[in-house]
Every structure is written in C-alpha cells, then in structure tokens.
C-alpha cells in the first residue's frame, strides 16, 4: 500500500477502517475525542496500522502531536504517503 | 556497539516460580465494566495473572525457583561461585537482594553476589554477565536469578497497567562447559535513557524520597511510546543478533520475547515474518511479569525439544529504561526446565 501516495479521501477511508467507524463520519477536522475508538488502545492500533500499511514508524513527538484526523493526514504526507489530492 | 559472542557457558536448568494466588481478569476485576475488561483482555491477551499480594517479594519467588532448581540438578550449595539477582523490585533499597539470597539459599560466603537493576531487558543482561564471568575463569557455576513483582507496583485504578501485570521469579543455572567448550552465544545490549519517563515509578527513590501522592509509588506507563519503541527496536536487534551469530531467521527454533502485550508481540511476529508457533505466548495465564517472563516462557511455553540436539533460542527483552537486549543461546537436551507455584503467605 505504500508504493503510491494516497489521496486525502483514501486516507480518510483508511482512518475509518482503523477506528472501525463508518467512512462518511470521518472528516479531517475531527478531534481525537470525537472518535470513540481513538482511545489509549486505539492509538496502538493506529501506530501498528501505520507501520503495517505504510511502513511508517513515527517519532515520539509525532505520536504526541496526533490530535485530529488532519494530524494523521499531515504526518502521512510528511512521510510521503499522502499526496494531498482530494 | 555493545555486542559480543561468548563461548564456554552452558545452561544446566531453568526453573520459574509464580505465586499460587490466581486472579481471573474477567471474574475478579473490580472497578471496570465488562466491556472495558473485554477490550483490554482482547488486546493485551491477559486472561489471568498470578499475584503475590503484600506478602511475597521477588526474592521469595526467586528463592523458591532456586531451591527447586538446585534439587533437580543436584548442585552442592558450596559449589556455586556467583549469584546474580536481576530485579527492579528489591526487598530493600539497600542491601542488595542478592546478598539476602546468598544467605537464604545457604550459599558459601566465598560466593560473589550482586544485583542488576534492569527490568524487561534483564534476562539477556543476566545471562550475558553470568556467561562472561564463567568464560573469564575463576567462576565455574553461577546462578542467575530474575524476579519481579510488577502487580505490586501497579495502581489498581490505572487502566493502562492494572489488568496487565503478574508476578514471577526464576532461577537459571550456568556452568562452565566441558573440554572443547560449548558453542558460543551471541549478545546485543542497548539502552536509550531519553525515554526514562515512558515507564517509571517516579516516587520513593532519592529523586523524590517521600512523595505525598501515593500514586507516585506506582508505575506509570506511556503505552503509545512503549509500543512505538518496541516495534522500532525489537526487529532491529533480532537482525543484528542473527548477523552477529552468522545465522538466519530459520535457524532459530524459538523466538522467546519478553511477554509485554499480545498486540505488540503479534505485530512483531507479523512484521518479522515469524510464525506465531515459533514465538510462544504465556501472557494468557501469567500476564506481563516483566523480564522474568522470558525464563517463564522457556519453562511454560510448551517448547518442543529434540532429544539429539540443543534448541537454538533467540531471547529478547525490551522495555523499562528504556533498555533492550538479546541473547542467542543454545539449550541442550539435558537442561532441566521446571516450574512451581509458591503458596502465598496468609
């Protein structure tokens, strides 16, 4: 999955899958506390899926900086995995 | 880089010990909803734990394991030249728990005894030190004891740790090999103290001697950082250890990892392409017992042992410190593996 950078909508669908939330409910501006499954266990799933699906390993600062869906998109963009197209 | 091969030491036996008091996470957890317990158990994989309560220290568990081990392998007490106690749950800030155990086990006063203050990475470090002492000469028999009581330093209301930890001790007998020596073992040892706050008991040491908040005497864990550390460091140290030993992944019979959390371990197995059957899990019954989870899994991980050759084991400890270490060892068919329960005191 990591060979080609994903569009924003593909990343949103991926985030929905990670947190087992209907895709239509996931928007970039959503904060962490608006997603039930993004709790202390959900963050582990997120880190694991980033590694598994994108081969992206984050720094501790990057992990602490993940506060919204937009932050997830941004961190994947920084690692060359999100293209920014809709 | 701290890595080396050491020739000349062999394991004569490993015995693990846990408290008899068994705590069922589904039936006995208090203060958590059923859904919460199901979710935590589903991820961490810990169905039950053996817990020491206030009456049992890691030294008691190690003593029980050592008594059992010595009876099984028939070593005379005065033939033991060194005792290494690896623990971060000592009886006292001082003296060393190793000195207490030298006396309790009836070992000679000519025996070297000292503590090593490492947790999750402690078992490979303990084997490294024991093997190094034997290969250096002057020491022909060493006991490496490794015990922790993490359930005793968990805050019961802290969801990130309270359903995770169990208590365990272990004893490993190391001896100089016969003429011609034993095949060499490979060790890689690492540390990164910049992550010291990710797994810490902040109070009670000399940095914060008498904290008013009792919770500062309990362990605090940043689960996300520890997980992230694990998936970065464990695959790399395994690769480095294989390269050092000149072996490939398929040459290893079992990868025995510190039993941190089922989710972490399964992710590591998948990431490294290791079949789960070659990475035994004992978390379900015992929980995360800290570093002693490695010898506990050697004895309780249902290892298939061929009669005609040694098992080649990759042992990897990782966590508090942050510290991580590996030991690629050979466990001969004659080596004793045992396990016992220690009845909790009233």
Structural commentary:
The complex is a heterodimer of chains A (about 90) and B (about 350). Helices cover about 45% and strands about 0% of the residues of chain A. Chain A has about 90 residues and is mainly α. Chain A starts with 7 loop residues before the first helix and ends in an 8-residue tail after the last helix. Helix content of chain B is about 30%, strand content about 25%. In chain B, helix 6 packs parallel to helix 7 (about 260-270). Chain B has about 350 residues and is α/β, with parallel strands linked by helices. Chain B is built from nine helices and 15 strands. The interface between A and B is medium-sized, with 12 and 19 residues.
Short description:
The complex is a heterodimer of chains A (86) and B (346). By secondary structure, chain A is mainly α. Chain A is 45% helix and 0% strand.
Defining key terms:
heterodimer; A: 86 residues; mainly alpha; Non-ribosomal Peptide Synthetase Peptidyl Carrier Protein, Chain A; 4 helices; 0% strand; B: 346 residues; alpha/beta; Peroxisomal Thiolase, Chain A, domain 1; 6-stranded mixed sheet; 5-stranded mixed sheet; 25% strand
How many alpha or pi helices of chain A?
4
Helix content of chain A: 40-55%
Fold-level CATH name of chain B: Peroxisomal Thiolase, Chain A, domain 1
Low-confidence stretches of chain B: none
Biggest sheet of chain A: strands, sense, closure? Answer: none
Assign the structural class of chain B, choosing from mainly alpha, mainly beta, alpha/beta, alpha+beta, or little secondary structure: alpha/beta
| Portion in beta strands of chain B | 15-25%
Ends distance of chain A: 18 Å
Instruction: Kindly give the count of domains of chain A.
Output: 1
Mean pLDDT of chain A: 88
For the secondary structure, the number of strands of chain A is 0
**Strand and helix order of chain B:** EEEHHEHEHEHEEEEEHEHHHEEE
Element layout with pairings:
The complex is a heterodimer of chains A (86) and B (346).
Chain A lengths: L7 H11 L23 H13 L5 H5 L4 H10 L8
Chain B lengths: L2 E4 L2 E11 L2 E3 H4 L5 H11 L3 E3 L7 H16 L8 E5 L10 H8 L7 E5 L5 H14 L5 E6 L22 E8 L8 E7 L7 E2 L19 E2 L1 H23 L8 E4 L4 H11 L10 H4 L6 H8 L10 E9 L3 E9 L4 E7 L4
Parallel strand pairs in B: 2-15, 5-6, 5-7, 12-13
Antiparallel strand pairs in B: 1-9, 2-8, 3-4, 7-8, 9-14, 10-11, 13-14
């Amino acid at each position: 999955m990591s060979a080609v950078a994903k569009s924003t909508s593909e990343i949103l669908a991926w985030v929905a899958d990670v947190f087992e939330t209907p895709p239509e409910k996931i928007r970039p501006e959503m904060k962490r506390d608006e997603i039930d499954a993004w709790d202390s266990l959900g963050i582990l799933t997120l880190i694991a899926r980033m590694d598994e699906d994108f081969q992206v390993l984050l720094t501790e600062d990057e992990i602490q900086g993940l506060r919204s869906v937009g932050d997830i998109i941004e961190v994947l963009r920084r690692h060359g995995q999100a293209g920014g197209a809709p | 880089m701290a890595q080396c091969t050491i020739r000349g030491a062999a394991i004569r036996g490993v015995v693990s010990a846990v408290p008899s008091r068994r705590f069922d996470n589904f039936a006995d957890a208090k203060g958590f909803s059923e859904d919460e317990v199901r979710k935590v158990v589903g991820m961490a994989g810990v169905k039950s734990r053996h817990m020491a309560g206030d009456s049992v220290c890691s030294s008691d568990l190690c003593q029980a394991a050592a008594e059992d081990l010595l009876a099984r392998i028939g070593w005379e007490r005065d033939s033991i030249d060194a005792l290494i106690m690896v623990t971060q749950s000592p009886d006292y800030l001082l003296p060393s728990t190793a000195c207490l155990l030298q006396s309790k086990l009836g070992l000679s006063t000519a025996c070297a005894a000292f503590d090593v203050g490492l947790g999750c990475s402690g078992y490979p470090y303990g084997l490294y030190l024991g093997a190094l002492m034997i290969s250096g000469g002057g020491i022909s028999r060493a006991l490496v004891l490794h015990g922790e009581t993490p359930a005793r330093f968990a805050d019961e209301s802290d969801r990130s740790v309270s359903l995770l930890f169990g208590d365990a001790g272990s004893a490993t007998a190391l001896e100089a090999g016969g003429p011609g020596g034993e095949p060499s073992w490979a060790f890689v040892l690492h540390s990164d103290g910049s992550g010291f706050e990710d797994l810490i008991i902040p109070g009670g040491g000399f940095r914060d001697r008498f904290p008013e908040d009792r919770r500062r005497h309990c362990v605090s864990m940043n689960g996300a950082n520890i997980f992230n550390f694990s998936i970065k460091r464990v695959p790399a140290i395994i690769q480095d250890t294989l390269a050092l030993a000149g072996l490939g992944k398929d040459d290893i019979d079992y990868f025995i990892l510190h039993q941190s959390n089922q989710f972490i371990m399964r992710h590591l197995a998948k990431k490294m392409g290791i079949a789960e059957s070659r990475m035994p899990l004992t978390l379900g019954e015992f929980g995360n017992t800290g570093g002693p989870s490695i010898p506990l899994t050697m004895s309780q991980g249902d290892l298939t042992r061929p009669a005609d050759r040694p098992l080649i084991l990759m042992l990897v400890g990782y966590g508090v410190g942050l510290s991580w270490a590996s030991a690629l060892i050979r466990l001969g068919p004659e080596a004793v593996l045992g396990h016992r329960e220690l009845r909790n005191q009233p």
